[in-house]
């Protein structure tokens, strides 16, 4: 008989935790997972999946406007928020059921309650039961940060936005990262008056400056209002239930909802890390080595809780690598360079590799920049003036493509293939030698001279 109840106990059934559980079980390990909310975690339940579905739903506003130019007579379009909201939530339930079925199929026992660390090899369930495990994997993710100001209790975060009873007329969003700008695009497309307020003077700081400037220009033209260098200091709830938002020195902004999108913090409060001698970092993150092992040899951590890269595909790879390392006889790490990313703003942008600024810092002036500033064919026919922008950052010494940056329709779909090229170390000459796929926007990637 084993001296432990389980070979692996996973705290958190998000993308990283579920992958680690499934793979470890496939290697023959006896596995259990505990989830205090819903199986699927942030991405499936209250993050990228339902948010992308809202993006799809909001796109129809533009498509219906353009339809007449393409010969369609549709009458007066009418939008119903509860229909979209409820359809999205039903799909979330479908995916949650699929994740649960994956655990069941692989004979992973799951506990629908909170679990904390009681010792190097012990977890304590909310019910009081203690369970032992040879290894413990922490995959509890992160949680939205709520700034401290008067009236913050009247605001919502990305956790609650999917459950709004009705579509608000006026939306104030604090933050200028990907969550803020994606929801700004959704609400703007659905006809809401959107104001984005930010404590700094820039949006999407990690992206190439040319893309950020283009997105700002287009979204302002679409009607989104920005107020920079003015974080919210107060939110007053009025007698009729509406809100009055004080931000910087501007006049108070009337709103129906205030969405706080000011970052996410590793969800380690009360997790019991001290019971295993693990000291969290300054942001609450769990420090780990390249194999995702903490300072306690029997405890590992993956995903957003480590604050390495807060992306679902990274959590999945980290979880898979831990399972292979511990139970598959294949100790391995994952690479964190050349990670593609996208913002599903309207229009969307996507990138992989070095920005121009990062390349100049690393290579000095020994880089070449190629760009294509064009008006997508669909926009031309629809009478829209919005322009796409593609950009290649190239090492002048080796001709290797260091980065690809794109803004325009379908940029994330196109970027995925381009990311393979950057990861493989292909050169600008390789791009030039590739025949263009015409007519398409993607062909601009191989036509820059």
Verbal overview:
With 449 residues, the chain is α/β, with parallel strands linked by helices. The chain has three domains: 6-142 and 265-327, FAD/NAD(P)-binding domain (3-Layer(bba) Sandwich), CATH 3.50.50.60; 152-262, FAD/NAD(P)-binding domain, CATH 3.50.50.60; 347-446, FAD/NAD-linked reductase, C-terminal dimerisation domain (Enolase-like, domain 1, 2-Layer Sandwich), CATH 3.30.390.30. The protein is 30% helix and 23% strand. Strands 1, 2, 3, 4, 5, 6 and 16 form a seven-stranded mixed β-sheet that branches. A five-stranded antiparallel β-sheet has the order 17-18-21-20-19, sandwiched between helices. The protein has a four-stranded parallel β-sheet with strand order 10-9-8-14, with helices on one face. Helix 1 runs parallel beside helix 7. The mean pLDDT is 95.
In whole angstroms, the N-to-C terminal distance is 68 Å
Q: What is the CATH superfamily classification of the largest domain?
A: FAD/NAD(P)-binding domain
Question: Can you tell me the number of structural domains?
Answer: 3
Look up the CATH topology of the largest domain. Answer: FAD/NAD(P)-binding domain
Summed up:
With 449 residues, the protein is α/β, with parallel strands linked by helices. The protein has helices at residues 15-26, 41-46, 48-67, 81-105, 178-189, 209-221, 312-327, 356-363, 377-382, 411-423, 428-432, and strands spanning 6-11, 31-34, 109-111, 115-119, 122-125, 130-138, 142-144, 170-174, 193-197, 225-227, 232-237, 243-247, 253-255, 257-260, 264-266, 299-301, 341-343, 349-353, 367-374, 388-395, 401-407.
């Amino acid at each position: 008989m084993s001296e432990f109840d389980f070979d692996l106990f996973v705290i958190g059934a998000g993308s990283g935790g579920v992958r680690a559980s499934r793979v470890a079980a496939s290697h023959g390990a006896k596995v259990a997972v505990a989830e205090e909310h819903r199986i699927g975690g942030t991405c499936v339940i209250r993050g990228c999946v339902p948010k992308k579905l809202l993006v799809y739903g909001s796109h129809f506003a533009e498509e219906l406007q353009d339809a007449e130019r393409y010969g369609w007579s549709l009458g007066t379009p009418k939008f119903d928020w509860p229909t979209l909201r409820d359809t999205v939530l039903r799909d979330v339930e479908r995916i949650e059921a699929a994740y649960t079925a994956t655990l069941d199929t692989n004979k992973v026992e799951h506990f629908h309650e909170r679990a904390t660390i009681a010792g190097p090899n012990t977890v304590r369930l909310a019910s009081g039961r203690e369970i032992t495990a040879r290894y413990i994997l922490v995959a509890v993710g992160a949680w939205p940060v709520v700034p401290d100001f008067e009236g913050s209790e009247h605001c919502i975060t990305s956790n609650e936005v999917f459950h709004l009873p009705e579509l608000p007329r006026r939306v104030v969003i604090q933050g200028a990262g990907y969550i803020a700008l994606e929801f700004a695009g959704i609400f703007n497309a659905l006809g809401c008056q959107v104001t984005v307020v930010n404590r700094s003077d820039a949006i999407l700081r990690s992206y190439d400056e040319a893309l950020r400037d283009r997105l700002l220009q287009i979204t302002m033209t679409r009607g989104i209002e920005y107020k920079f260098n003015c974080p919210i200091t107060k939110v007053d709830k009025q007698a009729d239930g509406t809100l009055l938002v004080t931000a910087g020195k501007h006049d108070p902004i009337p709103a129906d909802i205030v969405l706080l999108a000011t970052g996410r913090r590793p969800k380690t409060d009360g997790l019991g890390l001290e019971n295993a001698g693990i000291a969290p970092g300054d942001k609450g993150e769990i420090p780990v080595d390249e194999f995702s092992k903490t300072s306690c040899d029997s405890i590992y951590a993956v995903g957003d809780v480590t604050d390495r890269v807060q992306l679902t595909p990274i959590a999945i790879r980290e979880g898979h690598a831990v399972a292979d390392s511990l139970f598959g006889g294949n100790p391995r790490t994952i690479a964190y360079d050349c990670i593609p990313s996208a913002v599903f703003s309207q229009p969307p942008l996507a990138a992989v590799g070095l920005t121009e600024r990062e390349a100049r810092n690393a290579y000095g002036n020994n880089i070449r920049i190629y760009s294509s500033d064009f008006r997508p064919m669909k926009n031309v026919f629809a009478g829209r003036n919005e322009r796409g922008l593609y950009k290649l950052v190239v090492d002048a010494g080796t001709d290797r493509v260091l980065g690809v940056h794109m803004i325009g329709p379908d940029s994330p779909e196109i970027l995925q293939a381009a990311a393979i090229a950057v990861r493989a170390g292909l050169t600008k000459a390789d791009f030039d030698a590739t025949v263009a796929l015409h007519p398409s926007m993607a062909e601009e990637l191989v036509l820059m001279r």
